[in-house]
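MODEL INPUT / OUTPUT PAIR
PAIR INDEX: 1
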Amino acid sequence: MTGTEFAQVQEQAQQTSAVAVEVDDLAVSYGSVIALDGLSLRIEAGTVFGLLGPNGAGKTTLVRVLSTLLRPNRGSARVLGNDVVRDPVSVRLTIGLAGQYAAVDEELTGRENLEMVGRLYRLSRAEARRRAAQVLDRFELTDAANRRVGTYSGGMRRRLDLAASLTGRPPVLLLDEPTTGLDPRSRQELWTILDELRDAGTTVLLTTQYLEEADRLAQRIAVIDHGKVIAEGTPAELKGSAGTDVLKVRLADPADLDAAVPLLADLAATGVADVDQEAGELTLRVARPDAAAEAVRRLDRQSLSVLVVQLTQPSLDDVFLSLTGHTATAIEGVSS
């Protein structure tokens, strides 16, 4: 396939697909371990779709299936209408991929890595050089462009890997925890780039452990746990599902928590209190507007000293806790 034909494939796929990614009843297992268990989702073209889940939930497995690196045991997956099993070549022509670990050649320079990726995307040598120079500048790697990648720091390799995923300007980007290992400035820069890509019509599947990242970037979010989608919606919809407000109460003496929990339990709109014994803090999802004042009154009547009472709107972390029973931190299991 020539460079012109390749560009036509990308353009046609981008223009004709209202749904960029379709996953139906996808199942993947590693021996006795089930990584994906009947997972289904739809990603609209030209949007950023966030995928949240703890380590072991199945996020990376899904990315590997969509990038044709892994065949599912059951179900189907299509990228811009192309089936990942029956037509993997067409899928690869229309995706960019950045995994959790930088996949760059340490023996080549940064520029050579990017030009090589451009050539794999069927770009001419001149166009590959031009694109490489653009993304090197975008990720502030121009000064190190002619150095061997083996001399790069971990953060620089990560930025180079992300740059490589953008070199071919693919209509669909699969980003598996792309900001892991980046400093705050580089993370903010990547967020800006993703905003620009979305505005230009690129579809992005973003897996992340950073809940604020999904909240900031994604138009729609799916929460997965144990290989299944357990909730999906806009960030506002998901936060609304966790309760109207979040009440945090910190006691002067952590030993008083055992007495405080039953006193406040009926204030919870859903579930039970999340107790941090070490900090002497409990968290409740509440619906009543006077929950903070009522909590203080009840604790004061029992002579339980309060340091802090805070009533806030729910965050995605609160959503995650209410849905899974744990926060979005690493848990035992297979690769995410």
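PAIR INDEX: 2
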Amino acid sequence: MVAHPGLRVLMLPMHVDDLPAVYAIERQSFSTPWPPHAYRAELEANQLAHYICTWVGGRIVGYAGMWLMVDEAHVTTFAVDPAWRRRGIGDRLLVALLDAAVQRGARDATLEVRVSNVAARRLYEKFGFRPVGVRPRYYSDDGEDALVMTTLAFDEPAMRRRLDRLRTEIAASPEPEPPDDGATIEAHG
């Protein structure tokens, strides 16, 4: 086994040029992916939208998006390349998205997640999301219910402490190692 130095993780705004890589992750992550034109419309026309990409070693390995509706950040999408999961990418991506929500004046955040997606639910719970309801038969591919999850208000002391603690843990954690899948690490330029 070859030792690899950790690779620097960057959180950058999503751009139209990023869409091929984003859509490749989308297809691997969701049974009913958004159509390719949806992300372009979000980036070019939706003034409520904010999307970010996670770059590692010159390639996109995750992305997330939200709409800021009045004072609520509604998480519209969140995905990490399957080869890069369980390497801290999701933690870094979610804290960056929540920080962006706070910077844009959001009071709290909400999202929908498949009831069966236990890994995603655990990640969201770690960041302070809690179940507040169910949307029956929300997912069109199989009629699965969606669990609606919401955070405490971002200005609540408990929520501030949680995010501060998670930011500190992330900052202290090593940069992720590349997966052993033969993926080429390209230079970002």
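PAIR 2 NOTE: The domain at 9-172 is CATH 3.40.630.30 (Aminopeptidase).
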